[in-house]
Amino acid sequence: MGQTTSTPAGLHIPAEWDLHQSTFMSWPTGWGVLNPKVQGDIARVAKTISQFEPVHMLTPPNQ
């Protein structure tokens, strides 16, 4: 464990278990009739994570 990936362009992609300062998530918008359920699930995941570290939620401009 502890391995990271580096791309030829120099982009560093840390392993998900590496130390980090916050989490970035994307707000679901394209799930059709399931969208309210999926949004509720994502909100609960974000709320849980936020007990341990900051969460940044990426959303479309109209959300």
Description:
The protein is an alpha+beta fold. It has a domain at 20-63. It is built from one helix and four strands. The strands form two sheets. Strands 1-2 form a two-stranded antiparallel sheet. A two-stranded parallel sheet has the order 3-4. It starts with a strand and ends in a 5-residue tail after the last strand.
Question: What is the strand and helix layout of this fold?
Answer:
Elements (H helix, E strand, L loop, with lengths): L4 E2 L5 E2 L9 E4 L8 H15 L5 E4 L5
Parallel strand pairs: 3-4
Antiparallel strand pairs: 1-2
* Cα-based radius of gyration, to the nearest Å: 15 Å
User: What is the string of SSEs from the N terminus onward?
Assistant: EEEHE
Shape: extended
Q: Summarize the main sheet.
A: 2 strands, antiparallel
- Which range best describes the helical content: under 10%, 10-25%, 25-40%, 40-55%, 55-70% or over 70%? 10-25%
Record field, number of beta strands: 4
Q: Report strand %.
A: 15-25%
Count of DSSP-assigned helices: 1
Instruction: Give the N-terminus to C-terminus distance in angstroms.
Output: 38 Å
Unreliable stretches covering 5 or more consecutive residues? none
Give the strand order, joined by hyphens, for the main sheet. 1-2
Q: Residue-averaged pLDDT, rounded? A: 88
The class by helix and strand makeup works out as alpha+beta
